[in-house]
Amino acid sequence: MNDFLMERNLSAEQVILSLMPIILFVVNIGMVAGIWMGAIKVNAGSLQIGVILAFINYLNIMMNGLMSSSNVLMQITRSFTSADRIGQVLDTNIDITEPANPASLPEIRGEVEFKDVNFSYSKNGEYVLKNISFTAKSGEKIGIIGSTGCGKSTLVKLIPRLYDADSGEILIDGVNIKEYPLENLRKAIGFVPQNATLFSGSIEDNLFFGKEQATNEEMEHAAQSASALEFIDRFEDTFAHEIKQGATNLSGGQKQRLSMARAFIREPKILILDDSTSAIDAISESAVQQAIKRNHPETTVFIVSAKISSLIDADQILVIDDGMVAAKGTHQDLLVASSIYRDIFATQNGKEEVSYE
Ligand SMILES: Nc1ncnc2c1ncn2[C@@H]1O[C@H](COP(=O)(O)OP(=O)(O)OP(=O)(O)O)[C@@H](O)[C@H]1O
Ligand SMILES: [Mg+2]
């Protein structure tokens, strides 16, 4: 595409370059002619020199006007293309729809159940998730592990209805998530995506995205839970510290801690951490895990991670393989029951093989 664009630009420039001298030549011939004819009339005494000067000046002004309006025309043509694209985006229908008759449901407690869930992005039947079934009781900590691209992020994205399952059901407290008003559903969920975005503005502004009008205590508490307070306190202006666009003035680990704090401050009933501690050192990570257990005992927590150490204490670990739940259970169960899990454990423990009776 870039080559094509360059070709087009070059040929446009070539046309301009060959036309320009001709245009200027014609314009200047016109001026010479004007001066010539004017001079004859001045000689004959029927015209004053000032009139010729004024004529040439006006001619120049009109020429410049014509040239800049041709530039404007060019810009307009280009902006039509951009406007088309913006229109396309604005006109896209959102296929996640609100329930027609939202039931008035009690507050979400956080039990999550997947029943035979299938999901594909392209809707061509090539499923990214296949027959996913499991139950997470309210307050349980669920670990999700599996190789790159096996569908872990996709699985957790279905819970806040970022996508809808093709078939099967996802229930929260026994009610299909499609029956909750979207706002209620999403209010109950804290979601830290794999590549969380922080916005330019202060640290405080970013935390307000999690909870508007959060108090100082709430901010400190959330930051503490996410092991973020230590680095925030090191800034002279603490929570007022400015974050640049794309959070380029923060380290990867600091970004992850802040995005976790932003989720914690919501006090969600369901907390989803999609590989949110990948850039955080082991000591801080275990501090975060302790804090989650201590401060959010009733929150159902989904921890997606490639590291067994991040989810070793989970009440239930789902081993995902090629979009399917290959095994589930606690760390100890899986060491016995799942060869995939054993392999991951062995490589991460630096041992060639672990044998279990
Ligand atoms: N928006 C999308 N559109 C189309 N395909 C997608 C999209 N997002 C992910 N996929 C595909 O779905 C599959 C599962 O992706 P997913 O992001 O769930 O993997 P993952 O297990 O989270 O991987 P990782 O450990 O690298 O984060 C991959 O094959 C990926 O190519
Ligand atoms: Mg992922």
Q: CATH first level of the largest domain: which class?
A: Alpha Beta
Spatial strand order of the main sheet: 6-9-10-3-11-12
pLDDT below 50 for ≥5 consecutive residues: which ranges?
none
- The backbone outline, from C-alpha atoms, is elongated
Task: Tally the structural domains.
Answer: 2
Oligomerization state = single chain
Order of helices and strands: HHEEEHEEHEEHHHEHEHEHEEHH
Main beta sheet: 6 strands, mixed
Question: Superfamily at the CATH H level of the largest domain?
Answer: P-loop containing nucleotide triphosphate hydrolases
Protein described:
By secondary structure, this protein is α/β, with parallel strands linked by helices. It folds into 2 domains: 2-91; 112-348, P-loop containing nucleotide triphosphate hydrolases (Rossmann fold, 3-Layer(aba) Sandwich), CATH 3.40.50.300. It is 48% helix and 17% strand. The chain has 12 helices and 12 strands. The chain has a 6-stranded mixed sheet with strand order 6-9-10-3-11-12. A 4-stranded antiparallel sheet has the order 2-1-4-5, with no helix packed on it. A two-stranded antiparallel sheet has the order 7-8. The radius of gyration is 33 Å and the shape is elongated. It starts with a helix and ends in a 9-residue tail after the last helix. Bound molecules: adenosine-5'-triphosphate (ATP) and magnesium ion. Residues 152-153, 194, 274-275 line the site of magnesium ion (MG).
